[in-house]
Amino acid sequence: MSLLFLLLLIPDIYIWYMFLRNMHWAWQALYFVPVIVTILCMILVQTPLYQAWMFRIGMTLLLAFFIPKMLFMLVSIVGLAARPLFPIAWQVMNGVGAAVGAAVIGIVIYGTLFGWRRLVVNEVELSFKDLPAGFDGYRIALLSDMHIETYVSAPECVERIVDEVNGRRPDMICFVGDLVNSSPRELDGFMDILPKMKAKDGVFSIMGNHDYCTYARYLDENGKLKAVRELQARQRRFGWQMLNNENKILRHNGDSILLAGVENSSRPPFPDYGDLPKALSADRKDSLFTVLLSHDPTHWRRSVLPETDVQLQLSGHTHSTQFKIFGWTPASIIYKEYAGLYEEGDRKLFVCTGTGGNLPFRFGVWPEIVIITLRKG
Predict the structure, then answer these.
(1) CA-based nearest residue to 355, from 125, 115, 109
(2) Where are the beta strands (DSSP E) in 32-162?
(3) What confidence tens digit (pLDDT) does each residue in 215-246 have?
(4) pLDDT for 136-148, tens place per residue?
(5) Residue 59: per-residue pLDDT
(6) Which of 176, 104, 209 lies closest to 354, judged by CA?
(7) How far apart are CA 373 and CA 168, in angstroms?
(8) CA spacing 20 to 30 A to 183: which of 172, 225, 289, 375?
(9) Listing from the earlier edge strand, what are the strands of the sheet with 340-344?
(10) Gyration radius (Cα) of the chain, Å
C-alpha cells in the first residue's frame, strides 16, 4: 500500500518541483489537496469506516487528477531528456502533455456526468444450424452488471432500462449477474421498479461475483451468507427465476431448448461456485439446444468449450472496462473475450458490457441492453 501511495505522489512532486515550488505557500498547499483526499479515501475503504461514497470519490479523483498528471509528467520528461539536443523540446512537450491531460480531464467529466446515463439498445441476430425451427425468431433481452448502487441518485435511469426492455417485447429476459455492488440494501429504492420488467417466458438471473456480497464488511461469515440469501430472496420477489447451477426447459411453437445457469465461475480473486455438470443436467432423452448463462466470459474457454456441447453462452462481467477510445479498450489486455460476439465453429459467446459499474463513469462503452434474435440456418 505504501508503494501505491508513493506512486500517487510522484506526478504531484514532479509538477510541484518543476513548476510550482516558487509560488505562494497557500497555492502550493491547495495543489496537493486532491492527492491527499485520494490517499485518505483509499485508506478509509480498507477500514471498518468504509462507505461506498469514499470509494467513488477516491476513484473519481484518481481518474480526474492522477491519470492526467501522470501522462503530463511522462510527456514532460521526454521533452526534458531531449532538451540538450533540442532546446525547445521541453516547452513543446510540456504543451503536448498539457493538451493530453486536458483531454483526459474532459473525458472524465463527460463520462462522470453523462456517459453512464447514455443507454443504448443493441439488436443482434445469431444463427445456428441446430436451432429448433420453433425458436426461429425467438427474442432474448440480455442485461448484465447493473450494479444498482450506480443509480441511487438516478432511479429514473433504471425506469428507462425497464421501459426499453419491455418496449422490445422479448420472449425472455436474461440477467447475467452483478445486480448489486456489495449489499442487498442497495435495492431498497428499486423494489417497485425492477418487478415491472416482464417477458412472456419470464426473467431469469444468475449470480455474479459482486452478488456474493464479498465487498462489504460483516462481523462473521454468517452475516455475508445472510446478505446473499436476502439478495436472492429479493430477486424472487421481483418474479425473477434464479438459476443457481440449475436449468429450465423452454417450449416455444412446439419445440424445446434448455436454458441453464451457473453460479459465478471465475479464477481468483473472484469467487467460483459454478457447477457446470449440475447446471446442464436435465431429465431428457435427447440433447437439447442449450443457452448457458455464466457471468464470467472466461468460463467459455476454461470449461464450456472443452467440456460441453453448449451452443450459446451469455455473459457479462468485463464492462469492457467502461472505457473505449479510437476502438481500443484496456479490456483487450485483460480478457480474450470482453464485448460482443465470439465464435468457435458453430458455438457462440456473447458478452454484454452491462449498464452500471462500481463507479458511475463510462466513455465509449455506453450502458447497453442487448436484444438477441435467434435464427435457424
Answers:
(1) 115
(2) 120-128, 139-143
(3) 877 767 788 899 999 999 999 999 999 999 99
(4) 999 999 999 999 9
(5) 87
(6) 176
(7) 11
(8) 172
(9) 246-252, 255-261, 290-293, 312-315, 347-351, 340-344
(10) 24
Is residue 328 helix, strand or coil? Answer: strand
For residue 339, count other CB atoms closer than 10 A to its CB: 22
> Average pLDDT, stretch 253-277?
95
Task: Return the C-alpha torsion angle 306, 309, 314, 320, nearest 10.
Answer: 30
Residues 353, 365: contact at Cβ < 8 Å? yes
Q: Which residue matches cell numbers 511522462? A: 74
Distance CA 154, CA 37 (A): 25
pTM, 2 dp:
0.92
* Selection from 75, 82, 145 nearest residue 116 by Cα: 145
Torsion of CA 179, 182, 185, 186, to 10 degrees: -50
**Which pLDDT does position 28 carry in this prediction?**
92
Sign of CA dihedral 13, 15, 16, 17: positive
Residue 285 banded pLDDT, cuts 50, 70, 90: very low
Residue 17 to residue 213: CA distance in whole angstroms: 44
Q: What is the pLDDT of residues 28-56, one digit of tens each?
A: 999 999 999 999 988 887 777 677 778 88
d(CA 50, CA 45): 4
Task: Please choose, from the candidates 211, 185, 148, the residue with its C-alpha nearest in 3D space to the C-alpha of residue 360.
Answer: 148
Extended beta strands in the chain, E state: 120-128, 139-143, 172-175, 203-205, 241-242, 246-252, 255-261, 290-293, 312-315, 340-344, 347-351, 368-376
Using alpha carbons, list the distances in angstroms from residue 194 to 123, 146, 148, 197: 22, 11, 10, 6
Q: Could you give the CA distance from residue 127 to residue 249 in angstroms, rounded to a whole number?
A: 20
